[in-house]
């Protein structure tokens, strides 16, 4: 049984404003502190306590260690009804999942390159801290009003090793993310047979090669500098 908190209810020093999301593992609340500043409270579900231990551990550990405006700051650990919870900085903005759900929103190429540059910078900071996020998807990437990008939800993030948790996992997600953005300006003729993205999208050979390398379809990228340099070349050619 999940004990939901309602708007106006108090959890320790925080007053609940809204429920932002509910996953298998827990509930994400928007709340405000005693100074009236908004923040995020993540509360784990009881029946998921065993399974979610590692999710909780890594998300906390990793966010504590990252000190950059490109990620939400870890504020504090709480225990609520004997369940672990933690408080994170609230980032005002909109997640890409919501932008993509709005069919009228089209990403232009120069916007896609700007977003790609910021995401690569984010991956580069993660790599400097030996971290792979493993979930860089539209619900987990937020864009602020000033167009700065912030990566959230570190539940699957881990320390890089050379087996399961490789750098290439985040390169694959970056490629897939960018393809979602390219598809916003693709008109699907329902009469025609579906083709793979590299045939359907109106993109250059260089863009195809870049995306294929990110996704490991062609020779994979081995380092982030190479990716940075290829995006700059694409941007100049555009
Ligand atoms: N720091 C934050 N600032 C602003 N909004 C946030 C923040 N963290 C989460 N959100 C909002 O809450 C939603 C759910 O958050 P998040 O994806 O971290 O939860 P989760 O339950 O761990 O997700 P999942 O079930 O996908 O693992 C996000 O899509 C976003 O809209």
Short description:
The protein has 238 residues and is an alpha+beta fold.
Characterization of the model:
Keywords: ATP-binding, Kinase, Nucleotide-binding, Transferase. GO terms for molecular function: ATP binding; protein serine/threonine kinase activity; protein tyrosine kinase activity. This is Serine/threonine-protein kinase PknB. ATP binds at residue 42. Residues 14-238 form the Protein kinase domain. The protein is an alpha+beta fold and 238 residues long. It folds into 2 domains: 10-89, Phosphorylase Kinase, domain 1 (2-Layer Sandwich); 94-237, Transferase(Phosphotransferase) domain 1 (Transferase(Phosphotransferase), domain 1, Orthogonal Bundle). Helix content is 37%, strand content 21%. It contains 7 helices and 11 strands. It has helices at 49-65, 96-101, 109-128, 167-183, 197-200, 205-214, 224-237, and strands at residues 10-11, 14-22, 26-32, 38-44, 74-80, 83-89, 94-95, 131-132, 141-143, 149-151, 158-159. The strands form 3 sheets. It has a 6-stranded antiparallel beta sheet, with helices on one face. It has a 3-stranded antiparallel beta sheet with strand order 7-9-10. Strands 8-11 form a two-stranded antiparallel ribbon. It is globular. The termini are far apart. The structure holds adenosine-5'-triphosphate.
Question: Could you list the spans in which at least 5 consecutive residues all have pLDDT below 50?
Answer: none
Hetero ligands? adenosine-5'-triphosphate
Question: Which CATH architecture of the largest domain?
Answer: Orthogonal Bundle
Q: So what's the oligomer here?
A: single chain
- Strand line-up in the sheet with most strands: 1-2-3-4-6-5
SSE sequence, one letter per element: EEEEHEEEHHEEEEHHHH
**Percent range of helical residues:** 25-40%
Separation, N- and C-terminal Cα atoms: 54 Å
Largest sheet: 6 strands, antiparallel
What is the tally of beta strands?
Answer: 11
CATH third-tier fold name of the largest domain: Transferase(Phosphotransferase), domain 1
């Amino acid at each position: 049984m999940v004990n939901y908190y309602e708007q106006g209810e108090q959890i320790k020093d925080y007053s609940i404003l809204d429920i932002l999301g509910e996953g298998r593992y827990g509930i994400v609340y928007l709340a405000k502190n005693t100074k009236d500043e908004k923040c995020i409270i993540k509360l784990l579900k009881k029946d998921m306590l065993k399974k979610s231990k590692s999710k909780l551990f890594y998300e906390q550990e990793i966010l504590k260690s990252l000190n950059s405006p490109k990620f939400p700051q870890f504020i504090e650990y709480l225990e609520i009804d004997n369940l672990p919870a933690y408080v994170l900085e609230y980032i005002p903005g909109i997640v890409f999942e919501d932008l993509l759900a709005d069919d009228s929103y089209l990403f232009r190429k120069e916007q896609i390159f700007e977003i790609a540059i910021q995401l690569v910078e984010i991956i580069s900071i993660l790599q400097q801290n030996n971290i792979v996020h493993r979930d860089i998807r539209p619900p987990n990437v937020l864009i602020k009003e000033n167009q700065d990008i912030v990566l959230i939800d570190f539940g699957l993030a881990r320390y890089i090793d050379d087996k399961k948790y490789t750098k290439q996992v985040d390169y694959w997600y970056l490629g897939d993310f960018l393809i979602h953005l390219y598809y916003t300006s693709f008109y699907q003729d329902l009469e025609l047979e579906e083709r793979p993205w590299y045939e359907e999208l109106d993109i250059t050979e260089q863009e195809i090669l870049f995306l294929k390398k990110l996704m490991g379809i062609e020779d994979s990228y081995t380092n982030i500098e190479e990716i940075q340099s290829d995006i700059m070349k694409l941007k100049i050619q555009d």
